[in-house]
Design the sequence.
């Protein structure tokens, strides 16, 4: 969304590129990836799985979040942010539609699955799910807390950071890359 990765778009509120719609394009791309996955699974199961005996899976990269403060708004913010992570892709594949939290926040920015597509998605079950988890971040509610828009998690109306406002980092810094810390209690404890 911030223009660092292809296609290099970074429109408002993430940047000032001359082209693109950063607030919608990631959801269109994700939608097409989900539909492509369903089509590939369908073809593999019909034509090749019987002969090859292979399994179908998907690997997701997901963060985990801990609330900045022990408040209801920050706890709800964690739930919203998690919906915009792995469930963004897994919910349609497993249940046939996006998480309720995403649908409620994004409205028409989030593409709709046609009834036939939902049926196909639900019929292309996974044999396994792989999970890549690299870091846990503190999370602050964006709706009732004044803070900058988060370039990655902004649509969930949250702000994430590896350091709380009082300077306390989440876990131990193990890689000298911004926001990658070792947190033993990450990924849901």
Sequence:
């Amino acid at each position: 969304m911030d223009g660092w990765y292809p296609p290099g778009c970074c429109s408002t509120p993430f940047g000032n590129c001359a082209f693109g719609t950063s607030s919608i394009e990631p959801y269109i791309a994700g939608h097409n990836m989900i539909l492509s996955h369903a089509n590939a699974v369908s073809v593999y199961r019909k034509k090749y799985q019987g002969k090859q005996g292979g399994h179908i899976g998907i690997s997701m990269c997901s963060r985990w979040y801990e609330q900045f403060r022990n408040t209801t708004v920050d706890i709800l913010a964690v739930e919203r942010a998690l919906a915009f992570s792995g469930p963004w892709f897994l919910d349609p594949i497993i249940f046939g539609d996006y998480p309720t939290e995403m649908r409620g926040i994004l409205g028409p920015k989030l593409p709709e699955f046609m009834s036939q597509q939902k049926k196909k998605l639900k019929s292309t079950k996974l044999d396994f799910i792989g999970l890549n988890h690299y870091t846990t971040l503190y999370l602050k509610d964006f709706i009732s807390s004044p803070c900058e828009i988060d370039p990655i998690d902004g649509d969930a109306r949250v702000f994430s950071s590896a350091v709380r406002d009082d300077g306390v980092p989440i876990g131990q810094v193990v890689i000298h890359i911004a926001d990658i810390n070792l947190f033993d209690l990450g990924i849901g404890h």
Observations:
- Residues 58-182 form one domain.
